[in-house]
Amino acid sequence: MWRVALILLLLLPPLAIAWNHDTWSSILLIGWTMLVLPVCILQGIDFFQATEAKTGRQARLVRGLLRIPIGLFGLLSLLIGLTIVAWCLYNVFVRRLPEYSGPDNPFVLLLSGFGVAPSLIAFGVHLTRLSLRRSV
Fold first, then answer.
1. 2: pLDDT confidence band, cut at 50, 70 and 90?
2. Rg (Cα) of the chain, in Å, rounded?
3. Cα angle, residue 93 at apex, residues 90 and 94 outer, rounded to 5°
4. Helices 2-10 + 12-19 axis angle, to 10
5. Which residues contact residue 118 at a Cβ distance below 8 angstroms, ignoring those fewer than 6 apart?
6. Would you tell me the crossing angle of helices 57-93 and 117-132 to the nearest 10 degrees?
7. Per-residue DSSP letters for 62-119?
8. Half-sphere exposure of 83 (CA within 13 A, CB side)
9. How many Å separate Cα 52 from the centre of its chain?
10. Which residues contact 102 (CB under 8 A, 6 or more apart)?
11. 77 phi and psi, to 5 degrees?
12. So where are the chain's domains?
C-alpha cells in the first residue's frame, strides 16, 4: 500500500504542471516538496546504511551511486547552516539589516541559539561523514 502512495506522490509534479491552475498547482508542488523529498532522502540514507554489511558487487555499486546525493545533501545542509550562523553574527557584530529580527546582544544570541542552524550543521556533518566513510 505504501508503494502505491509513494508512486502517487511521485506523480504530483507532472500532475501539477499538467493541471495548469495557479493555486492548486502551487499547493501540489509545495506538498510534494514537503512530503516526498524528505521521505526519499531518508529512504536513501536508510538503504545506504542497510547495504553497508553487504559486500557483493551490486551492493558496492549501489552504495557508490548513493554516496553522491547523500554527500551533496550533506554539504548543502552544512552550507545552509553555516550561512544562517554567519548571517546572524553579521547582523549582531557588523551591521543590523532591516530583515533581521534576532537579538542585538551577542550573549543572548549565543544563549538562545541560532534557530535551526545548529541542527542543519550537525545533520550536514553526519551525512557528509556517512557518504565519505569506507565500507566495513
1. low
2. 20
3. 65
4. 40
5. 81, 85
6. 150
7. HHHHHHHHHHHHHHHHHHHHHHHHHHHHHHHHT---TT--S-SSHHHHHHH--TTHHH
8. 7
9. 22
10. 88, 91, 92, 109
11. -65, -45
12. 1-50, 55-136
